[in-house]
Design goal:
By secondary structure, the protein is of the alpha/beta class. 40% of the residues lie in helices and 14% in strands. The chain has a single domain, classed as NAD(P)-binding Rossmann-like Domain (Rossmann fold), CATH 3.40.50.720. Strands 3-2-1-4-5-6-10 form a seven-stranded parallel beta sheet, with helices on both faces. The protein has a two-stranded parallel sheet with strand order 7-9. The chain has a two-stranded antiparallel ribbon with strand order 8-11. Helix 1 packs across helix 6 (208-220), helix 3 (74-97) packs parallel to helix 4 (141-156) and helix 5 (180-189) crosses helix 7 (238-249). The two termini are 32 Å apart. The relative contact order is 0.14. Bound molecules: NADP nicotinamide-adenine-dinucleotide phosphate. Residues 7, 9-13, 31-33, 44, 63-68, 79, 83, 87, 108, 110, 169, 171-172, 180 line the site of NADP nicotinamide-adenine-dinucleotide phosphate.
Length: 316
Amino acid sequence: MKFVIPGGTGQVGTILRRALSAAGHDVVVLSRNPSGPGEVHWDGATPGPWAAEVDGSDVVVNLAGRSVNCRYTPANLRQMMDSRVHSARAVGEAIAAAERPPRVWLQMSTATVYAHRADAANDEATGVIGGGEPGVPGYWGYSVDIAKAWEREQEKADTPHTRKVALRAAMVMSPDRGGVFEVLLRLARLGLGGPVGGGAQYVSWIHDRDFARAVEFLVARDDIEGPVNLAAPGPLPQRALMRALRDAWGIPVGLPATRWMAEIGAFVLRSDTELLLKSRRVVPGRLLEAGFDFRHPEWPEAADDLVRRLRGRAAR
Ligand SMILES: NC(=O)c1ccc[n+]([C@@H]2O[C@H](COP(=O)([O-])OP(=O)(O)OC[C@H]3O[C@@H](n4cnc5c(N)ncnc54)[C@H](OP(=O)(O)O)[C@@H]3O)[C@@H](O)[C@H]2O)c1
């Protein structure tokens, strides 16, 4: 099959390209700065010659969006929103105008669309959508607004011959350089892998190979459309996640960080504490119901596997 992946130059795109190419698919990535074979220029917002790649393709997986790992300044928030909404709109327009539209359009969304909660898990049917929940900083609602606007853009696209799925993805854990797993491991190795802000907040995650397998599964399943959670069935509290990561690497201690220490750390790292403190308890209701078989459902085993691969890469 021919896959077109707008925004496929980042962390998730690297994972998908690797898996899809290994499975023998043709992959074309749309980038604002194409730099190698299989990469085609687009601006992420307006129609252009890139639309010819979409016409006649089998699958489009749109991953484009400004990184959310940044300070939430007004300018950054605007870019986080616009890059997602405008790119989804442009992809929808290209599909609508195609003579031979793709069979399926997988649009990246995020597990952050669900409310901050630890009391129960959010699946697609009964989960609580976030925004305005009590006891959390008001500005956290903006990430939910972005996710909703992103999904809305896909929903309203007039693409009657193309099945549409929104990927509500949790943190994708891979051994790649610069990915979230490497960042967490680096903190743990510095002795900072303890609970943050109490550590009771849940972390949802998905192993990179399960992520790629889930994408292929959703491409094959003509009966599935709309939002789908891409998260392992075993989300866990942040303190347990970090403890298992320390065990996997062999690090005996992890210093706890209070909320204000997290604020300083996030400032230094030019990031935002929402990424650390929001409780994301998200489970893959629809994937499990459809019979998807997770190879890495629980974190301690997944962390062992990722550490093994990361060490293997370092040894090469
Ligand atoms: N990583 C995760 O665990 C995770 C989990 C849930 C959801 N997501 C979402 O999945 C998507 C991909 O994640 P990722 O980790 O691969 O992100 P990433 O590494 O930041 O890559 C995203 C890509 O989007 C493109 N992009 C950046 N700013 C843009 C802009 N203003 N307009 C158009 N394109 C722009 C970039 O490609 P070019 O510079 O080549 O154009 C970049 O390589 C993101 O939207 C992210 O929010 C990620």
